[in-house]
Amino acid sequence: MASPVAWARHRPWPVLAVLLAEMTIAAAALRSGLEQLWPLLLVASLLVALIAATRAPRAGVAAAALTLTVQQITWQASLFAESGWRRVLAPGFLGLTVLLALSVLAAWLAGTLIRQRREYEQALHGHATAEAVSAERLRIARDLHDMIAHSIGVIAIQAGAGSRVIDTAPEQTRDALGAIEDTSRRTLSELRRMLGILRQAEPDPATPSDTEPLAGLAALDRLVASTADAGVQMQVRRRGTPAPLPPTIDHAAFRIVQESVTNVVRHVGTPRCQVTIEHRPGELLVQITDDGPGGASATGPGYGISGMRERVALLNGHLTAGPRPDGGFAVSARIPIPATAPGPSHPPQSIRAR
Length: 354
Prior knowledge:
The protein is of the alpha+beta class. The chain contains ten helices and five strands, in the order H-H-H-H-H-H-H-E-H-E-E-H-H-E-E.
């Protein structure tokens, strides 16, 4: 009689119907109550739990109601056939009736809890996936903004300078066009590298990667040169004992400097700015100051300051940006360095002030 249970996992409803029918027929044939058919009662309760756990909520309720109805009708009919209402209403048999109902209810509750737990875990997984996608989109947006904004700013300034002196100073025009070409090629190369990293979602360890590491503080020499081409002298000072930085911190520090200098080039209108890189015990201090009109670099529309705040916040650091009391604007980022930092991304290099 219990052989249909073998198909319970794939066809729980037909198996439950067969077991309930067997239960009814056996009770009528044996002319006794369900106490002799307790294995079928147990299996029926397990099927109720299975349906409640793997099917829709309505299916679980229907399975519990059907099982309880068939069991109660069979049980009460068997008692009534023996001694009438006197046996049906006996305290002991009333207790068994309640116990029978509670067993089905417990099976339904257990299956419902299992289904709800599974749905909750799926919802958590979906939420985590959505957060990961959102974080990745923000990271890509920050990198594209920091990389392209600086390059386009340099190109726009060089193009404007070249157009003004094209008739009177051909040599300066040639230099401006050369700077535009160099900046454009470098930006195109960085875009290709970034697209290569994005396409390589799951890199194969056995396949060597042809993408270069993300830019870090070692690329400040190049930033100094491009900023000078845009007409702003960028003075870089290093303090403390240089030490290898984790790639994420190294890249974030460079992007903060790049975005701050880009704001100086595009909005401030001052011929110079100062960049300080200070290695402290357990943290890295990055500070960018200028002598232009206070607040000018922050009031322009865009996402530069918010992007820098996001970068520093992701590294558990702190960033301040605002006008200086004695004029100008200052950006200061304090980034903690983990005690067990990963390997270096770039070896530190000395930077000549320009």
